[in-house]
Write a structure and sequence with these properties.
3 copies of one chain form a homotrimer.
Chain A (H helix, E strand, L loop, with lengths): L13 E6 L6 H14 L3 E4 L4 H4 E3 L2 E2 L2 H12 L3 E5 L7 H6 L26 H18 L5 E5 L14 H15 L2 H8 L26 H27 L6 E2 L1 E2 L9 H7 L4 E3 L9 H15 L5 E5 L18 H11 L2 E6 L25 H14 L8 E2 L3 E4 L2 H7 L11 H14 L4 E4 L10 E4 L7 H12 L3 E5 L21 H4 L1 E8 L5 E6 L4 E5 L1 E7 L3 E6 L8 E8 L2 E6 L2 E2 L1 H15 L10 E7 L3 E8 L5 E3 L4 E2 L4 E2 L4 E3 L4 E7 L7
Parallel strand pairs in A: 1-2, 1-11, 2-5, 5-6, 6-7, 8-9, 9-10, 10-11, 13-14, 13-15, 15-16, 16-23
Antiparallel strand pairs in A: 3-4, 12-25, 17-20, 18-19, 18-21, 19-24, 21-22, 22-23, 25-26, 26-31, 27-30, 28-29, 28-31
Helix pairs in contact in A: 5-8, 10-14, 14-17
Chain lengths: ~675, ~675, ~675
Amino acid sequence: MTRATPWPALDGIAYGGDYNPEQWPREVWDEDVRLMREAGVNLVSVGIFSWALLERSEGVFDFAWLDELLDLLHANGIHVDLGTPTASPPAWFFHAHPEARVVTRDGRTMGFGSRGMASPSSPAYRTAVARIADALAARYAAHPAVVMWHVHNEYGVPVGEDYSPASVAAFRDWLRERYGSLDGLNAAWGTAFWGQHYGDWEHVGAPADAPSVVNPAQRLDFARFTDHQLRACFRLERDAIRAHATQPVTTNFMANQSWTTDLWAWGREVDIVSDDHYLWAADPDGHVGLAIAADLSRSVGGGAPWILMEHSTSAVNWQPRNVAKRPGEMARNSLTHLARGADAILFFQWRASRSGAEKFHSAMLPHAGTDSRVWREVVDLGTALGRLGEVRGARVQAEAAVLWDFESFWAQDLEWRPSVDVTHQAQVRAYYEQLWRDGITADFALPGHDLSGYRLVVVPAQYLLSKADADNLAAYVRGGGTLVVSFFSGIVDENDAVHPGGYLAPLADVLGLRLEEFLPLREGETITLERADGAALTARAWAEDLIVDGADVVARYVDGPAAGRAALTRHAYGAGTGWYVSTSLDADSLAHVMAAAYADAGVSASVVPAGCEVVVRSSDEHDFTFVVNHRDDAVDLALDGTELLTGAPTDGALTVPAGGIAVVRTAREEAGRA
Amino acid sequence: MTRATPWPALDGIAYGGDYNPEQWPREVWDEDVRLMREAGVNLVSVGIFSWALLERSEGVFDFAWLDELLDLLHANGIHVDLGTPTASPPAWFFHAHPEARVVTRDGRTMGFGSRGMASPSSPAYRTAVARIADALAARYAAHPAVVMWHVHNEYGVPVGEDYSPASVAAFRDWLRERYGSLDGLNAAWGTAFWGQHYGDWEHVGAPADAPSVVNPAQRLDFARFTDHQLRACFRLERDAIRAHATQPVTTNFMANQSWTTDLWAWGREVDIVSDDHYLWAADPDGHVGLAIAADLSRSVGGGAPWILMEHSTSAVNWQPRNVAKRPGEMARNSLTHLARGADAILFFQWRASRSGAEKFHSAMLPHAGTDSRVWREVVDLGTALGRLGEVRGARVQAEAAVLWDFESFWAQDLEWRPSVDVTHQAQVRAYYEQLWRDGITADFALPGHDLSGYRLVVVPAQYLLSKADADNLAAYVRGGGTLVVSFFSGIVDENDAVHPGGYLAPLADVLGLRLEEFLPLREGETITLERADGAALTARAWAEDLIVDGADVVARYVDGPAAGRAALTRHAYGAGTGWYVSTSLDADSLAHVMAAAYADAGVSASVVPAGCEVVVRSSDEHDFTFVVNHRDDAVDLALDGTELLTGAPTDGALTVPAGGIAVVRTAREEAGRA
Amino acid sequence: MTRATPWPALDGIAYGGDYNPEQWPREVWDEDVRLMREAGVNLVSVGIFSWALLERSEGVFDFAWLDELLDLLHANGIHVDLGTPTASPPAWFFHAHPEARVVTRDGRTMGFGSRGMASPSSPAYRTAVARIADALAARYAAHPAVVMWHVHNEYGVPVGEDYSPASVAAFRDWLRERYGSLDGLNAAWGTAFWGQHYGDWEHVGAPADAPSVVNPAQRLDFARFTDHQLRACFRLERDAIRAHATQPVTTNFMANQSWTTDLWAWGREVDIVSDDHYLWAADPDGHVGLAIAADLSRSVGGGAPWILMEHSTSAVNWQPRNVAKRPGEMARNSLTHLARGADAILFFQWRASRSGAEKFHSAMLPHAGTDSRVWREVVDLGTALGRLGEVRGARVQAEAAVLWDFESFWAQDLEWRPSVDVTHQAQVRAYYEQLWRDGITADFALPGHDLSGYRLVVVPAQYLLSKADADNLAAYVRGGGTLVVSFFSGIVDENDAVHPGGYLAPLADVLGLRLEEFLPLREGETITLERADGAALTARAWAEDLIVDGADVVARYVDGPAAGRAALTRHAYGAGTGWYVSTSLDADSLAHVMAAAYADAGVSASVVPAGCEVVVRSSDEHDFTFVVNHRDDAVDLALDGTELLTGAPTDGALTVPAGGIAVVRTAREEAGRA
């Protein structure tokens, strides 16, 4: 289902970044505006960290400098995404409300001096954020420069869980609401284990440091509560703005780089999804992580165009080794986001800061000034985006979906799991990366979603899977879908309790097997599997004792603790097929398995060369095929249409140079799915 | 000396595990009892974590469910080891007595939500544990199901040292008692160093975090105090029970897996020693660690039969990689414990928990149910134990002893020792493992024990050794014993003060040498030694400057910092021999040295194949020879008797299949030692 | 410039160590004094940790034992360096003034029980240290044994930064003094970034734990403040002593092993520089670190003779693996310090302690007693020093200087720098070590010093470099100097703000280039450079995008992120030359580069064999050439003069045996520099 898309009132693809002029003398502002125009910037985010300069003391506002700034921007045709500065309350706030400071799980009270909100459960903080949001919206709702509102910054980072007294009290209220009675809570948390029964609501606390491992259901609920409190803060600000303003309201996520917020729930609260994304420098294939973040941003917004609110022109500053982007890489990153649904390409930040914790973060205008590679590429990117305006609003089509469930992440990441070598993230990445290498564009989805529109659904380590959601997956297969389930899926219910019937029980019918025991491997151990045709596969970290009950055995363990037993299975179920992969396959081995699943699903792997990324966005009339060449040599593709960056017809043969990008417009071949 | 052995009133070898029915609906109880009978279970531990359900609020008891449970078990012939639930006080307790919470060394207060007792020095906690123990004993002393009392659970884990104000005050009292005067304390702690002199008892505190390393004698005393406080809590409960009940009282240790309790002292307090043991999955020879734990459990109980209170049917859940046991491994583990003196084989736990921190811990009845490998092996083990009833009460004979002194452990494990590569544990394991590989059954002993019954005594890194204990070792050698002393022995006295005369001084006469200086090696460095016959040995981590003063040099350092100097020595002293090993030998090299020491001692290494474990238990009339085959192939032994698991005569030749076990009864050949 | 050198009133080279007789019974004192005479000891440090025994409770003094001790030492001709015991306040102090305890950055309050001062900002502590220093000075100023005062011990270790309330209040005062106004502070700290603007002095705090990275300028100021507070404590004691006494006053530094004190500032406060130095055992070339420490000690004292206050006869006890010194090593270490300007060779400590945290620290009189290698070498060293009396007061000549700036260290070591693989220490070591290997003696200097006396100045990672200091370096080159600048120099100003114009901007003219972007490498990555002559160099961790603007390119990057671009440059500027090294060269590659810089500077690498250390001290009449042979074989040198340790003429050819030392006196060849 496609939902209506509000969008900031501006033409073409939005281009720009965070703009923090309060760090600079007034004369620099004029230079900034001149250079923005040179680069084609049409949207800047303003005021993200300006609370202390806008509200000089409690309730005492000073808007003069912001008035001047917005007028200047408007006069130069630059639109404004106006921020609420609530991610960084002023020193006076913490001084007046020390009880609002965040407390860590191990009991340390977090002071002022860096960045980071106060406790999301603090009444003083909530009052303060509503006041500043209201004041800003009242003053600027009608300002012609303002085309969007940007609440807060990256909720969940660096402040997520909070163990302050205010938070504990709010958690208790949230639990009362959730469970109604202590009996409900005792049952859900399984407090009979380790003698944790509660006889009075006042005895229930947050899952802080304790002599041993804290009740995992309690910790899972605290993660849910944390997400809930952060969202409540967002809603408070959003509604204060809506009371005055009509422009769309967003808050910037950190998809695939932060895990304390349930983005599916947040996607329902914002008018437009926006996302911040930074390459992970240690990963030589960081662009795969980028694609995950982009696809997730699109998916939590229901497929609507979204905003890349922040990325970097080159290196960041907060990783162990902050690798700079190489020539062309920023453009490839930017157009990959666009290919995957972003209609706005923005950066942190416009001008590199001389002072503070992020002075080594790259910017559109670097410390080296305009006579620099980065600035020249920024200008070129502005030109390129100017040529892609007609792509705006086109939708990405996906035949496959990968499940991504924050609650399952939260539950699986708790202590005392069977093996530290098994992480949810790594399994999601492994399966997504295989799809990426095979040129298959995927959405992300929840196990409870309507999946009938997808030919293939992949389930990587969906540890927490409710019975109802498992039934939904079974219905999907019965209806003809192809489901690929990895090990460590379907283990616990929504209270982190093992399913009656044992591990994997809710998926037993659809997969045609039972799981008797986990068989984690020792550190560094590798094992071999053999397919029916004799081919060998390799795996690590994990094996299982499977009891086949209807499924076909596709491969067996040759060695390791499950030697001789079924390792990979395929089960014809209803009109569809259920695959099960009981170990962590190496990349080459996983490729074999997925190829077979594609055949069942009727999806075709792309024929483009390895390292070449192809994504299609479709409008009612056109397909826009994005080709991003990550290779060190040129590639040739048979593609007939008009290449938009050059404006030239391809005449059926497109050459994309090493590290280059092409966007080819063709007539629409098939109707959209939704 | 053999002491009288109280034993729970039941027939044959005890079999069963922890039973926590409060986690399950009532209808499950009936299934449990039925399946227990199917498996041959005759003893279950009940109530270990039931405090919150038995005492619903302070002084308000609810015994109805426990009455029903005990009656049900009794009606089905299943005996009960009744626990006191004091390892996990209820939420109401911590709410009412927040000052009773444990404080860590770095000042964090440990809250509710996992498991773990309150401060062992807290008056409120002591009052509460005495009340619940008294109430349980008063009610169930005469219940026919109850055959034993199980106080608390694993004292020292997860709560050992406590730095709460109550603990600090109690420590001060304990020190007054120990030293009588501040002069005594100042002298014992050597407070003249670093200006730590105390002029007032009120200034003395616990050894909490400080700017640099805290006084090691203070830390050693705090370890002693911690052990003392935990034992005081045990005695309080034990005596409350004894006021009503006549059944034996135990508490379950964690021999070789926890180091905060001095098990020699605890062995004197319990009626029966019981132990929990879990394989360390990362150790491919985990069964050697198992043998250490079993031998230590037997030794601290003076050789009397003991209870394996907990082990696992397969994987545990709290290690980094929780490797599952392979077919047959649970039986080998169980019968090895039995071979080494256990007359009860129990598990944690009967039925796998659906919820909580340990849901991935294996159980007798796994999540997969009765149609599972684990359940079938549980039933088979019950059958096997049923055939071994006549072994009950038989004693293990040992010609060798290995010293194991908790005070020395505590002292050696403190900061600022000569090399982080030298740990007490690793040295104990190295020497014990050599004995194990050579098929020599060993007891553990303290250096002050009467050792005259042993042909060989091994002293692995007895860092703390009082003058009196050193004299005891010398007397042992003079009397004809063979003593093997490793480096880092005899360094400090009971106050962690270097012995007058220098390192090793108290053992200088018996070893015929002086130790001038430690020569720790750099990380990863290996060195070579040469024996008189020219053979090369290899070692690592450590060397020494030895001055030979009467001893024969058995090997010299070829390279490294002590090149050319004595490395291994042998000293004829009185009627015996004192060996000294001044470095950390690799396994093959240690084997050579120990072989020579065996020759001196007149003990014979076993002739059974490598990887085959043989232990003998002897009653007045019979020897029961346990053969546990850890190999991947069958072994043949010349052994004439009756194999008890099959009931068949061996006719002089016994074949034990790969991974199998045999127990052969033969007529007693020699009288017992004690 | 040579400044007047006060010196303790004793003959020849001072020899001895810390003497803590309060740890021993009275009868041991007599043996101590006898053995001191045997070893040639003429100076001992007394009372360093004696506060609790001198001031038994607040204001109640007991000097009887110290009176007796000083009289005994004096009667035996042993001079005393009398300590103030303020590095370890008594238990009663902390009990009476709990608010004076130090608080760590993460909020833990550090208690009593180890060693370590109270908060340097605590009024109670300041009162107490002035009282005890005054009392000691009043009593012993006229004692004939006392020839020097030793304030405190190793300021900055183990107590450096303190976050107690007293410290926070003092920091605020210090900031008011530094900045005058909040506007000044806001500008210097760049508080506009991340919304950290301060509107009230009361809101300013210490840079304690916060949700994210704390403002780096705030942290840098807190490091300055910490140094300032520690120095204020020193001055308080020094002035209390000076009110009574005329002997010189020192406090012992830890040059090259502790970084919380700005030794350049401390050098101006003490009458004589003294230093503690311990080999880093994990470093196989620990003697290079020793040379750095010695040269730094000399340099911060303006070239005057200094005191090696502590080193060790053999192993220490606080490193992971405490490697013992091998025969001859202690003498080599001692005479290297002497060669580099020390006129006193002292040890921690005289007699090994039986108790406490440092019982495994070696001493002049070890646990093994006088029949030991260590004792024999101590006696021999006393004899050797007795023969070197005429060296006293001679000065070390240096043609090269290496910059060493504590403020730059502090700033660079903060969080979120471009790469964790780049540390200030490693760069200083790499360049110094190359000079050491080439036999070039170096001073250390600050970038603002008058450098005109040096032919060569090396700038290793001078991250923080003020514009004025950069101008001073440029003036040095214009005047004919040769400057070698490593990457990550000249990045920020004194407020940790990036220089206007970008990285390296203040050095752009002198180096003839611009720096566009840092290019940190991935973990473990290595890259290749090619010189103009085709030779290959290797490097790691870092590369840069350089824009050559006048400089000659000496080598280019062959691969890695800067492939094809300039890597090493040389720029003729004024009468001198500016070199730039944009990456972290491996040792062999750096040797090539430095050889070329030596040629520019007109300094000659030494022709002595590798591993042979040669340093010259010069008096008005003589050169004293120290040859320290670290090799495993003997070396022959052509050197005509008198070898002082043997008293024999060299007759033009000197053979120094493996591990040996020679000191050759020759007539002075050239006049001193200053």
